[in-house]
Amino acid sequence: MSRPTGIRGCGPRPAEGRLLLGLVLGLALLHILGTWGSVAVWWGDTGRWLHEVDRYARGATPYRDFFWPFPPLALWLMGTAGRVFGTSTVVMFSLSSLVFGAVAVALAYYVRAVLPNAVVPQSFVGVTTLFLAIPFSALGGSPLATGTYTPAQPIGFLLLILALTVALPVIEVPATGRALVAMVLAAGAVLTKQDFWIPAALLVGATMAALGVLHRRWGAAFAAGCVFGLTVALGLAAVALSAGGRAVVSMLTGGGHIAEFRGRGLPSWERLTLEGFTLSGLTIGGLIALWLGGAERLRRLKIWFIASVGLLVASGSLHVAMTLRVLGSPTGRVPSRIAEEMANLTGGGANVLRAAVRVLHDDTLRHALPVLLPVFVLVLVLWNRRSLKQGEALVLIGLLAMALGARARRLFESVEWFHVMLELPIYVLAVQLFWDAEASRSAPKMPKPVRRAGSVRGSHFVGLVAARSPGTQAG
Known about the structure:
With 475 residues, this protein is mostly helical. It folds into two domains: 14-262, no CATH class; 265-321 and 364-475, no CATH class. The protein contains 20 helices and no strands. The chain is globular.
């Protein structure tokens, strides 16, 4: 069973990988230079983790002598470097910048692994993904180049995306050594931050299934699982030996963070209307791109377009109306963005309406990649899986499951920068596979120039995938 490689008949471009790597490194360098020394709130998260790293570098034991709400690997790495080079802000921000540079390089290889034969150039996908992901790192925290709100986040994602990139070829070739390396990297992600527990577990399960079910290498699959489990166990044992058994429990629960913040990602009227507004907006953009690119006739897109416009207007109007109600008579806990407008609000009437529209605008930018997006695509893939090759459908389902797993901690609360990095190449892959499946059964086939123009202009994946659903297929 072969791994999907995008549009059939499109060969690899050797120079594309070098161009991709150079562009993402250039963009990363610009971000580092532009945000050097910049932090969100010095006495907030940044000051806290700098203090914690300094404590470890000076010999204190985490979980016993001071509080660290994450698994220990990031602290071990940063603190050990601090023992050697010192813990000044110059050293710490330099290390954070190196980690960010490594994340950019890993993203380039991840894009190449997911889209080896992309019609849309890999360099375009990689640079666009990095360009869109960078702003999300500074929403409520410090930029990527200065460690975000904790260095555990970029270090953990670096290990996860490396594990996924290393493991993807195992679907096609039963490379046991590659699988074992991926398991060690996935275990490292687990030992870094709670956000990556679920996607790492899904990756381990998928790798073991590929070795055992696809390639009949059950011994290798068992060995991969053992390597992952043993690596995690060694990390937990190190924590228990240094700080005691209770420290392991504290680490697993985030030092009480699970109990304190367990409901922060659940839906509310504000978040659900935002989800509907952003999802319908993305769908409308994709449908327009399909029509302008000549990939679809307007009558085939009309139902989806009308439904999307209706959802956009309804959800946006409801969000503004509820915001106006809260601004007029606030009761209970007020969402933070509305509270900001209330603090600066003067007068009434048109000023209040403008404030409500500003809240919708700002919240849309903060939730530009809705959590329902991977759910929507996964449902469409499952609904239309017969139009894809079996291997293509399985890989796409697995990647989307990992994307959902990475969303599990935040859910409806917010979009993280690593959600963007992980998901956008997957959506481009979904576009290509559905496009290819449609083109292969169309008669006569679409001319190549039209296909290329349509694929580039239709980069908003939602419209293209939606246009391939049963609602627009004759028969």
